[in-house]
Amino acid sequence: MFTDSFGRICSLGVGINYGQIANNLPTPSHVAYLLRSLNISRVKLYDADPNVLTAFANSDVEFVIGLGNEYLEKMTDPVNAQTWIQQHVQPYISQTKITCITVGNEVLTGNDVRLMSFLFPAMQTVYEALSNLGLSKVVYVTTAHSTGILGNSFPPSAGTFRPDLAEYIQRIVNFHSQTNSPFLINAYPFFAYKDNPGQVPLEYVLFQPNPGTLDPITNLKYDNMLYAQIDAVYYAIKAMGHTDVQVQISETGWPSKGDPNEVGATPQNAKLYNSNLLSRLQQNERTPAKPSVPVDIYVFALFNENLKPGPASERNYGLYYPDGTPVYNIGLQGFLPRMDYSASWKNALSSFVPFISLASLICAL
Protein backbone atom coordinates (compact mmCIF):
# COMPACT_ATOMS: atom_id res chain seq x y z
CA MET A 1 0.00 0.00 0.00
CA PHE A 2 1.11 3.57 -0.49
CA THR A 3 -0.37 6.97 0.17
CA ASP A 4 -1.39 9.73 -2.27
CA SER A 5 -0.42 7.30 -5.01
CA PHE A 6 -2.80 8.56 -7.64
CA GLY A 7 -1.54 12.11 -7.25
CA ARG A 8 1.96 10.93 -8.14
CA ILE A 9 0.68 8.67 -10.88
CA CYS A 10 -1.27 11.48 -12.54
CA SER A 11 1.95 13.45 -12.85
CA LEU A 12 3.36 10.50 -14.77
CA GLY A 13 0.69 10.74 -17.45
CA VAL A 14 -2.38 8.78 -16.32
CA GLY A 15 -5.89 9.99 -17.03
CA ILE A 16 -9.41 8.58 -17.06
CA ASN A 17 -11.99 8.17 -19.83
CA TYR A 18 -15.35 9.69 -18.85
CA GLY A 19 -17.92 8.12 -21.17
CA GLN A 20 -21.60 8.97 -20.88
CA ILE A 21 -23.51 6.33 -22.87
CA ALA A 22 -25.86 5.71 -19.96
CA ASN A 23 -29.10 7.00 -18.44
CA ASN A 24 -28.17 6.65 -14.77
CA LEU A 25 -24.92 8.59 -14.34
CA PRO A 26 -24.36 11.24 -11.67
CA THR A 27 -24.51 14.86 -12.73
CA PRO A 28 -21.30 16.47 -14.02
CA SER A 29 -21.16 18.50 -10.78
CA HIS A 30 -21.13 15.27 -8.76
CA VAL A 31 -18.46 13.85 -11.07
CA ALA A 32 -16.34 16.99 -10.69
CA TYR A 33 -16.47 16.55 -6.93
CA LEU A 34 -15.62 12.85 -7.25
CA LEU A 35 -12.59 13.48 -9.44
CA ARG A 36 -11.33 16.31 -7.22
CA SER A 37 -11.60 13.96 -4.24
CA LEU A 38 -9.55 11.36 -6.11
CA ASN A 39 -6.94 13.86 -7.32
CA ILE A 40 -7.51 13.01 -10.99
CA SER A 41 -6.20 15.78 -13.20
CA ARG A 42 -6.62 14.41 -16.74
CA VAL A 43 -9.98 13.47 -18.28
CA LYS A 44 -10.91 12.34 -21.76
CA LEU A 45 -14.41 12.93 -23.14
CA TYR A 46 -15.95 11.60 -26.34
CA ASP A 47 -17.74 14.85 -27.08
CA ALA A 48 -17.59 18.47 -25.91
CA ASP A 49 -20.46 18.35 -23.42
CA PRO A 50 -20.93 21.95 -22.23
CA ASN A 51 -22.39 20.74 -18.91
CA VAL A 52 -19.19 18.85 -18.14
CA LEU A 53 -16.88 21.64 -19.26
CA THR A 54 -18.82 24.14 -17.15
CA ALA A 55 -18.84 21.86 -14.10
CA PHE A 56 -15.05 21.65 -14.20
CA ALA A 57 -14.46 25.40 -14.55
CA ASN A 58 -11.61 26.75 -12.43
CA SER A 59 -10.34 23.25 -11.65
CA ASP A 60 -6.91 21.82 -12.44
CA VAL A 61 -8.36 19.10 -14.66
CA GLU A 62 -7.05 18.96 -18.24
CA PHE A 63 -9.59 17.84 -20.84
CA VAL A 64 -9.39 15.93 -24.08
CA ILE A 65 -12.62 16.63 -25.96
CA GLY A 66 -13.91 14.73 -28.96
CA LEU A 67 -15.45 15.22 -32.37
CA GLY A 68 -17.43 12.07 -33.14
CA ASN A 69 -17.14 10.22 -36.43
CA GLU A 70 -20.43 11.74 -37.52
CA TYR A 71 -18.71 15.15 -37.67
CA LEU A 72 -15.82 14.22 -39.97
CA GLU A 73 -17.34 15.22 -43.29
CA LYS A 74 -18.52 18.58 -41.91
CA MET A 75 -15.11 19.27 -40.37
CA THR A 76 -13.40 19.17 -43.78
CA ASP A 77 -15.01 22.59 -44.37
CA PRO A 78 -12.94 25.39 -42.76
CA VAL A 79 -16.04 27.42 -41.93
CA ASN A 80 -17.65 24.50 -40.09
CA ALA A 81 -14.44 23.72 -38.23
CA GLN A 82 -13.97 27.30 -37.08
CA THR A 83 -17.62 27.60 -36.06
CA TRP A 84 -17.39 24.39 -34.02
CA ILE A 85 -14.33 25.66 -32.15
CA GLN A 86 -15.95 29.04 -31.55
CA GLN A 87 -19.00 27.28 -30.07
CA HIS A 88 -17.39 24.36 -28.19
CA VAL A 89 -13.90 25.50 -27.22
CA GLN A 90 -13.61 29.27 -27.01
CA PRO A 91 -16.49 29.80 -24.52
CA TYR A 92 -14.89 27.43 -22.00
CA ILE A 93 -11.14 27.45 -22.47
CA SER A 94 -10.49 30.52 -20.31
CA GLN A 95 -11.82 28.64 -17.26
CA THR A 96 -11.58 24.95 -18.21
CA LYS A 97 -8.30 23.48 -19.41
CA ILE A 98 -8.97 22.02 -22.87
CA THR A 99 -5.69 20.64 -24.20
CA CYS A 100 -6.68 18.31 -27.04
CA ILE A 101 -9.36 17.57 -29.63
CA THR A 102 -9.69 14.03 -30.94
CA VAL A 103 -11.11 14.02 -34.45
CA GLY A 104 -12.90 10.70 -34.85
CA ASN A 105 -12.40 7.39 -33.04
CA GLU A 106 -11.13 4.14 -34.61
CA VAL A 107 -12.12 5.36 -38.07
CA LEU A 108 -9.52 3.36 -40.00
CA THR A 109 -10.65 0.00 -38.64
CA GLY A 110 -14.27 0.62 -39.58
CA ASN A 111 -15.69 -0.38 -42.94
CA ASP A 112 -16.62 3.10 -44.19
CA VAL A 113 -14.02 3.99 -46.80
CA ARG A 114 -15.65 7.36 -47.37
CA LEU A 115 -15.24 8.19 -43.68
CA MET A 116 -11.59 7.13 -43.86
CA SER A 117 -11.03 9.58 -46.69
CA PHE A 118 -12.40 12.44 -44.55
CA LEU A 119 -10.25 11.69 -41.48
CA PHE A 120 -6.96 13.40 -42.31
CA PRO A 121 -8.54 16.42 -44.08
CA ALA A 122 -10.78 16.93 -41.03
CA MET A 123 -7.79 16.77 -38.65
CA GLN A 124 -5.88 19.26 -40.78
CA THR A 125 -8.83 21.63 -41.09
CA VAL A 126 -9.53 21.60 -37.34
CA TYR A 127 -5.85 22.31 -36.68
CA GLU A 128 -5.84 25.21 -39.15
CA ALA A 129 -9.00 26.63 -37.55
CA LEU A 130 -7.33 26.47 -34.12
CA SER A 131 -4.31 28.19 -35.62
CA ASN A 132 -6.44 30.97 -37.10
CA LEU A 133 -8.00 31.52 -33.67
CA GLY A 134 -4.62 31.56 -31.91
CA LEU A 135 -5.21 28.25 -30.10
CA SER A 136 -3.00 25.75 -31.95
CA LYS A 137 -0.18 26.08 -29.39
CA VAL A 138 -2.61 25.36 -26.55
CA VAL A 139 -4.88 22.67 -28.02
CA TYR A 140 -3.45 19.84 -30.07
CA VAL A 141 -5.31 17.74 -32.65
CA THR A 142 -5.18 13.97 -33.00
CA THR A 143 -7.37 10.89 -33.57
CA ALA A 144 -7.63 7.56 -31.76
CA HIS A 145 -6.93 4.23 -33.49
CA SER A 146 -7.48 0.64 -32.46
CA THR A 147 -4.57 -1.82 -32.50
CA GLY A 148 -6.34 -3.30 -35.53
CA ILE A 149 -4.41 -0.81 -37.69
CA LEU A 150 -1.31 -2.95 -37.14
CA GLY A 151 -0.54 -5.47 -39.84
CA ASN A 152 2.17 -7.07 -37.71
CA SER A 153 2.64 -6.59 -33.97
CA PHE A 154 5.05 -9.34 -32.90
CA PRO A 155 7.86 -9.24 -32.38
CA PRO A 156 7.41 -5.53 -31.56
CA SER A 157 10.48 -4.53 -33.58
CA ALA A 158 8.76 -5.94 -36.67
CA GLY A 159 5.69 -3.82 -36.04
CA THR A 160 4.09 -2.42 -39.19
CA PHE A 161 0.79 -0.85 -40.13
CA ARG A 162 -1.63 -2.66 -42.43
CA PRO A 163 -0.60 -2.06 -46.05
CA ASP A 164 -4.18 -1.19 -47.04
CA LEU A 165 -4.17 1.64 -44.47
CA ALA A 166 -0.67 2.95 -45.16
CA GLU A 167 -1.76 5.86 -47.37
CA TYR A 168 -4.03 7.18 -44.60
CA ILE A 169 -1.65 6.59 -41.71
CA GLN A 170 1.41 8.07 -43.45
CA ARG A 171 -0.31 11.44 -43.77
CA ILE A 172 -1.47 11.29 -40.14
CA VAL A 173 2.01 10.41 -38.84
CA ASN A 174 3.52 13.25 -40.89
CA PHE A 175 0.91 15.59 -39.38
CA HIS A 176 1.80 14.52 -35.83
CA SER A 177 5.46 15.13 -36.54
CA GLN A 178 4.76 18.60 -37.92
CA THR A 179 2.38 19.66 -35.13
CA ASN A 180 4.14 17.89 -32.23
CA SER A 181 1.00 15.95 -31.31
CA PRO A 182 0.71 12.34 -30.07
CA PHE A 183 -0.39 9.23 -31.97
CA LEU A 184 -3.30 7.69 -30.03
CA ILE A 185 -3.96 3.96 -29.65
CA ASN A 186 -6.81 2.15 -27.88
CA ALA A 187 -5.13 -1.02 -26.59
CA TYR A 188 -6.93 -3.90 -24.91
CA PRO A 189 -4.92 -7.02 -24.05
CA PHE A 190 -8.25 -8.40 -22.79
CA PHE A 191 -9.35 -8.98 -26.39
CA ALA A 192 -6.26 -11.03 -27.20
CA TYR A 193 -6.82 -13.19 -24.13
CA LYS A 194 -10.58 -13.56 -24.70
CA ASP A 195 -10.07 -14.66 -28.30
CA ASN A 196 -7.32 -17.16 -27.52
CA PRO A 197 -7.13 -18.06 -23.81
CA GLY A 198 -5.36 -21.32 -24.56
CA GLN A 199 -2.43 -19.57 -26.22
CA VAL A 200 -2.20 -16.21 -24.43
CA PRO A 201 -1.05 -16.58 -20.80
CA LEU A 202 -3.32 -14.70 -18.40
CA GLU A 203 -0.30 -13.63 -16.33
CA TYR A 204 1.23 -11.98 -19.43
CA VAL A 205 -1.81 -9.77 -20.03
CA LEU A 206 -2.42 -8.94 -16.34
CA PHE A 207 1.14 -7.77 -15.54
CA GLN A 208 1.61 -10.76 -13.24
CA PRO A 209 4.94 -12.62 -12.85
CA ASN A 210 5.56 -14.72 -15.97
CA PRO A 211 8.49 -15.87 -18.15
CA GLY A 212 7.72 -13.18 -20.74
CA THR A 213 8.68 -13.19 -24.40
CA LEU A 214 11.87 -12.19 -26.16
CA ASP A 215 12.07 -10.02 -29.26
CA PRO A 216 14.61 -11.99 -31.31
CA ILE A 217 15.63 -8.95 -33.34
CA THR A 218 16.36 -6.53 -30.47
CA ASN A 219 16.87 -9.10 -27.70
CA LEU A 220 14.47 -7.05 -25.54
CA LYS A 221 12.30 -8.96 -23.07
CA TYR A 222 8.58 -8.21 -22.66
CA ASP A 223 6.77 -9.38 -19.55
CA ASN A 224 3.38 -7.92 -20.54
CA MET A 225 1.35 -7.51 -23.71
CA LEU A 226 0.52 -3.79 -23.36
CA TYR A 227 4.17 -2.71 -23.47
CA ALA A 228 4.73 -4.96 -26.48
CA GLN A 229 1.76 -3.34 -28.24
CA ILE A 230 3.04 0.17 -27.48
CA ASP A 231 6.50 -0.64 -28.84
CA ALA A 232 5.02 -2.30 -31.93
CA VAL A 233 3.28 1.01 -32.71
CA TYR A 234 6.54 2.92 -32.19
CA TYR A 235 8.32 0.60 -34.63
CA ALA A 236 5.48 0.88 -37.15
CA ILE A 237 5.78 4.68 -36.99
CA LYS A 238 9.55 4.36 -37.39
CA ALA A 239 8.98 2.26 -40.52
CA MET A 240 7.11 5.29 -41.89
CA GLY A 241 10.15 7.47 -41.35
CA HIS A 242 9.48 9.06 -37.95
CA THR A 243 11.09 8.73 -34.54
CA ASP A 244 9.74 12.03 -33.22
CA VAL A 245 6.09 11.08 -32.61
CA GLN A 246 4.96 10.03 -29.14
CA VAL A 247 2.50 7.15 -28.70
CA GLN A 248 -0.26 7.68 -26.16
CA ILE A 249 -2.67 4.99 -24.96
CA SER A 250 -6.02 6.74 -25.25
CA GLU A 251 -7.91 3.75 -23.83
CA THR A 252 -6.97 0.62 -21.93
CA GLY A 253 -8.84 -1.34 -19.34
CA TRP A 254 -10.43 -4.65 -18.40
CA PRO A 255 -14.12 -5.51 -17.97
CA SER A 256 -15.42 -6.78 -14.65
CA LYS A 257 -18.25 -8.72 -16.29
CA GLY A 258 -19.00 -10.21 -19.70
CA ASP A 259 -21.12 -12.66 -21.63
CA PRO A 260 -20.52 -16.39 -21.00
CA ASN A 261 -18.18 -16.57 -24.00
CA GLU A 262 -16.10 -13.59 -22.86
CA VAL A 263 -13.41 -15.51 -21.04
CA GLY A 264 -11.58 -13.59 -18.32
CA ALA A 265 -14.11 -10.79 -17.78
CA THR A 266 -14.18 -10.88 -13.97
CA PRO A 267 -13.82 -8.35 -11.13
CA GLN A 268 -10.66 -10.13 -9.98
CA ASN A 269 -8.95 -9.81 -13.36
CA ALA A 270 -10.12 -6.20 -13.82
CA LYS A 271 -8.68 -5.28 -10.43
CA LEU A 272 -5.39 -7.01 -11.21
CA TYR A 273 -5.07 -5.36 -14.63
CA ASN A 274 -5.69 -1.81 -13.45
CA SER A 275 -3.85 -2.00 -10.13
CA ASN A 276 -0.80 -3.73 -11.62
CA LEU A 277 -0.62 -1.32 -14.57
CA LEU A 278 -0.81 1.79 -12.44
CA SER A 279 1.58 0.41 -9.83
CA ARG A 280 4.14 -0.07 -12.60
CA LEU A 281 3.62 3.49 -13.77
CA GLN A 282 3.99 4.73 -10.22
CA GLN A 283 7.41 3.06 -10.29
CA ASN A 284 8.16 5.11 -13.41
CA GLU A 285 8.45 2.06 -15.65
CA ARG A 286 9.01 2.59 -19.37
CA THR A 287 8.62 0.21 -22.30
CA PRO A 288 11.70 -1.83 -23.27
CA ALA A 289 12.23 -0.04 -26.61
CA LYS A 290 11.57 3.47 -25.23
CA PRO A 291 13.35 3.62 -21.86
CA SER A 292 13.50 7.43 -21.90
CA VAL A 293 9.84 8.06 -22.82
CA PRO A 294 7.12 8.04 -20.12
CA VAL A 295 4.18 5.72 -20.71
CA ASP A 296 1.13 7.94 -21.26
CA ILE A 297 -2.21 6.27 -20.54
CA TYR A 298 -5.92 7.03 -20.15
CA VAL A 299 -7.71 4.25 -18.27
CA PHE A 300 -11.08 3.11 -19.57
CA ALA A 301 -13.36 3.94 -17.87
CA LEU A 302 -14.69 5.97 -14.98
CA PHE A 303 -18.21 4.48 -14.90
CA ASN A 304 -20.05 1.43 -16.16
CA GLU A 305 -22.24 2.64 -19.04
CA ASN A 306 -25.54 0.78 -19.22
CA LEU A 307 -26.60 1.88 -22.72
CA LYS A 308 -23.45 0.88 -24.62
CA PRO A 309 -24.28 -1.58 -27.41
CA GLY A 310 -22.48 -4.85 -28.01
CA PRO A 311 -21.48 -7.68 -25.67
CA ALA A 312 -21.93 -7.38 -21.90
CA SER A 313 -18.28 -6.47 -21.39
CA GLU A 314 -18.86 -3.14 -23.16
CA ARG A 315 -21.12 -2.06 -20.29
CA ASN A 316 -18.72 -3.19 -17.56
CA TYR A 317 -15.35 -1.45 -17.95
CA GLY A 318 -16.06 1.11 -15.24
CA LEU A 319 -14.05 1.55 -12.07
CA TYR A 320 -17.24 2.85 -10.46
CA TYR A 321 -20.93 2.11 -10.57
CA PRO A 322 -23.10 5.14 -11.38
CA ASP A 323 -24.01 5.51 -7.68
CA GLY A 324 -20.36 6.22 -6.88
CA THR A 325 -19.45 2.90 -5.30
CA PRO A 326 -16.39 1.04 -6.63
CA VAL A 327 -16.94 -1.98 -8.85
CA TYR A 328 -14.20 -3.90 -7.05
CA ASN A 329 -13.25 -3.34 -3.45
CA ILE A 330 -9.80 -3.62 -1.93
CA GLY A 331 -10.76 -2.29 1.46
CA LEU A 332 -9.25 1.18 1.92
CA GLN A 333 -11.71 3.86 3.00
CA GLY A 334 -12.16 7.35 1.64
CA PHE A 335 -14.99 9.90 1.78
CA LEU A 336 -17.11 11.23 -1.06
CA PRO A 337 -20.57 12.81 -1.33
CA ARG A 338 -23.48 10.41 -1.51
CA MET A 339 -24.76 10.05 -5.07
CA ASP A 340 -28.37 10.55 -3.99
CA TYR A 341 -30.50 11.66 -6.92
CA SER A 342 -33.60 12.18 -4.78
CA ALA A 343 -31.85 14.75 -2.64
CA SER A 344 -30.82 18.23 -3.59
CA TRP A 345 -27.21 19.00 -4.49
CA LYS A 346 -26.92 20.87 -1.17
CA ASN A 347 -28.07 17.82 0.78
CA ALA A 348 -25.80 15.56 -1.23
CA LEU A 349 -22.79 17.69 -0.36
CA SER A 350 -23.65 17.60 3.33
CA SER A 351 -24.18 13.84 3.41
CA PHE A 352 -20.95 11.88 3.14
CA VAL A 353 -20.52 8.12 2.82
CA PRO A 354 -17.28 6.20 3.08
CA PHE A 355 -16.03 4.38 0.04
CA ILE A 356 -12.83 3.47 -1.62
CA SER A 357 -10.64 6.05 -3.25
CA LEU A 358 -9.55 5.51 -6.82
CA ALA A 359 -5.94 5.77 -5.69
CA SER A 360 -6.29 2.80 -3.37
CA LEU A 361 -8.67 1.00 -5.69
CA ILE A 362 -6.38 0.77 -8.68
CA CYS A 363 -2.95 1.23 -7.24
CA ALA A 364 -2.70 -0.82 -4.08
CA LEU A 365 -1.69 -4.43 -4.33
TrEMBL record:
EC category: hydrolase
Catalytic activity field: Hydrolysis of (1->3)-beta-D-glucosidic linkages in (1->3)-beta-D-glucans
The family this protein is said to belong to: Belongs to the glycosyl hydrolase 17 family.
Annotated protein name in UniProt: glucan endo-1,3-beta-D-glucosidase
Entry's transmembrane regions: none
UniProt KW Hydrolase keyword: yes
Gene3D superfamilies: Glycosidases
Database matches in Pfam families: Glyco_hydro_17
Species assigned in the record: Abeliophyllum distichum
